[in-house]
Fold this protein.
Amino acid sequence: MFRLLIKNYLLHLPYSLLLIIQMLIVLFITNHTFLQVVRDTKAMDNIIVDKGFYLVESEQENNKEFLENVVKIMGKNCVGYMYRNMEIGIDENDYTNMPSLEYINATMEQIQYTLKEGTWFTNKENQVILGGTIAQMYHAGDKIVLTQDGRQKKVVVAGILKDPGRCIHLDKNADGDLSSLVQQGYSVLLTNSRKILKWAGQDRYLEAVSLIVDGTENKSAMEILKKNYKVTSLEKAIENGKREIRKNTVGNVLYMGTLLAMAFASVSIQIYMYLRRNREQYQLYRMLGLSNGGIFVLWFGQHIVNLAITTIGFYSIMNYIEKKQFLGGKVTDENTIFFLVLYVCVYSVLVGVVYRLATIQLNRKNLKGAC
């Protein structure tokens, strides 16, 4: 049987290659959409905020002036802002493959995130927290080296953000929707260390298109702030973000479902037409003594081989792409594996159903022909 399966597969190799290429294309498109949906739905879940914190937005083009104005109203210790430097490498890896270094001040530091391992920032200097894809390369407690223009800075990984490992950025107006400030990039490199910020040099820039303020102890200042700027409580901004994510998720799910339905319909038609074109061959196998079960194994085995080649090919290509981009990072997470398993199961059921329907129809035609 095994030798017959191999001969049968090689006999119809062009057809199998066509199906494999088609399945690979569908997998790449739908897997990307699936992972995007998973990341989006989880993006807001790991943010931990206290009541009394607000998102402040301005139309001013001068970030520094905006920050100074809000500090005058609220006081220096109540305004959260960030600095970013996009040219920081990690260990011996070039900065083009690494996330930006992002400095958060004391107020921003009070917005914490759920950690996968380690701790939030302590009073120790030279600490960083990693999240997203870059975090898959390290663990809490690891010592890493930041690099810039030949200069080096030794730091300690204090903690790893829980997946999807994103944080709030302040480089745009959000219109009261925190999701637009969170859904940026796939990696995070955070620090609260002024020493690291100073070491990073003058290439850093201030993120202050939006600001975070602590209004728990200064209600009168908050009223003044609301008269001058758009102010939204962080709790409300998170809810707005989740609502927007749900809206976008529905569209992505419909897109992915439609694409998969079209792909499976196309594959079903191809499988059916292939079976019809080669029905004489399978009738010959039956005449030579092969049972219906044996013919199904022969038929199904061909598609199992296609699935195996597709899965291995998809995994290998993803592995290569991720390793090239993130230099040895973890490749296929549990979401990708779940998607592959689901795809294999649906495809296997589809092959069995099409085979059953096709054989019923062909048997009916044979009976009519005999009559």
